[in-house]
Design a protein that fits this description.
This protein is an alpha/beta fold. The protein contains 8 helices and 5 strands. It has a 5-stranded mixed β-sheet, with helices on both faces. Strand 1, helix 3 (about 55-60) and strand 2 form a beta-alpha-beta unit. The longest helix has 19 residues, at about 150-165. The radius of gyration is 17 Å and the shape is globular.
């Protein structure tokens, strides 16, 4: 079956539902799959996720070896290397879906809110996290957000728009229907990944 952005997203949603229900299939994790992948990879999705150890991408979407191209940074922030990795997945590997995955109780968002509210900045390179996340929080605050959940969801949406805006390669493929971009937020409490924003694919219920 030819994969499309919508069918790939449906596979992720179905896999996450299995994970939530405790009925994961654990696909593509056997010896044959390992041997198959020695000849190359052909994932259908690239996921930019937070580095938080509680959010293991392949597990929460019930995926296996070679299924997901994963990029992880604290607070799922972007820089040139992240954008280059995303474009590599889209252009060279031919993935159909780009996912930005935030989560409940994000430490990077919490630290940025603390700095924004009280000026308490961390030392060293951790300051980069604050500098990268704070613009999202400022726009969220201007739009009326007040709770951590709202700030986290808004940050996901801002990263989605940033990726599309900065990458003509991804932008053009959204326009011609080759690629979709989805922002999601993982809930630690129940294991659910809830959609925040979607470009080039239909939101659930549409």
């Amino acid at each position: 079956m030819t994969q499309t952005p919508d069918t790939v997203w449906k596979e992720l949603i179905d896999g996450n539902r299995r994970f939530m229900d405790g009925c994961s299939d654990h696909p593509h994790q056997d010896l044959d799959r390992r041997a198959e992948l020695t000849g190359g990879q052909k994932p259908n999705v690239v996921v930019l996720a937070c580095s938080d150890s509680r959010v293991p991408v392949e597990i929460i979407f019930d995926q296996g070896l070679g299924d997901v191209f994963v990029i992880r940074t604290a607070g799922h922030i972007t820089d040139l290397s992240v954008l280059a990795s995303l474009e590599f997945a889209v252009v060279s590997l031919g993935v159909k879906l780009v996912v930005v995955l935030g989560h409940e109780s994000c430490g990077a968002v919490k630290a940025s809110l603390t700095a924004l509210n009280g000026g308490d900045m961390p030392s060293g390179f951790q300051r980069v996290l604050i500098e990268k996340v704070t613009p999202s929080l400022l726009t969220a605050r201007r739009s009326g957000s007040t709770s951590p959940d709202e700030f986290e969801a808004h940050h996901v949406a801002e990263i989605v728009e940033h990726i599309i805006d900065r990458s003509p390669e991804i932008q053009s493929r959204i326009v011609n229907g080759q690629v979709g971009v989805v922002g999601m937020r993982y809930q630690l409490s129940d294991g659910r990944t809830a959609p925040v924003v979607a470009r080039g694919v239909g939101m659930p219920g549409e």
